Amino acid sequence: MNLRSLFAATVLAAAIPAIAAPVTYNVDPTHTFPRFSYNHLGMSTQLSKFNKVSGSVVFDKAAKTGSVDVTIDTTSVDTGSSLFNGHIQGEEFLDTAKFPTATFKSTKVVFDGDKPASIEGNLTIKGVTKPVTLTVTHFVNQAHPMMKVDAIGANASTVIKRSEFNASKYVPYVGDEVTITLSIEAVAAQ
User: Average per-residue pLDDT in the chain?
Assistant: First the structure.
C-alpha cells in the first residue's frame, strides 16, 4: 500500500505544474539610471540622469503579476555641468532642499504574453503625486551572466508635463514635456 501511495503521489506531482512564487529583486544601483530629456529653447534635446537610485521589483512569471518601487535621489542629478546641476536642484525646478527624492510606486503591471508591456503607477516629484504609465520597451528575466543569480533588466519610459509638478519656469521656451526613461537592472534578493 505504501508503494501504491508513493506511485499515486508521484503521478499527481508530475501532473500538477509547479506553482511559482513572486520573486523580489533589489535594484542594482550601479546599473540603474533614471534619465530625463526635454527641448531646450527649440535648439536641442537636453539629456540628463540621476546617479543614485534604490528600490525593488517583484515579479511573478507564472501569475503574470509584478510591482515596482523606485526612489531617486534628486540631489544626484547629473546634467554634465556642476553649474547646471545646481540650477536644476533649485526651487524653480526640483527644489531638492525640500524634496531630496522622487518616487515611482506601481499600481498595476500589464503583461503582453510572458513580459510586462506597461507599468501603471504614481510618480511623486516635489511632493506632487500624479498617475503615469511607463511603456516597457525591453524586458528580460534570466541568470545574470556575471553574478550567476536570477536577475531582471528592463527599459521603460513615460512623458510628463513638468508644470504639473510645480516646475514650470521658462515654459514654453524650455519644453514643458519631459521624457523620463528608466533603465533598470535588479538581482534576486538572497
Answer: 90
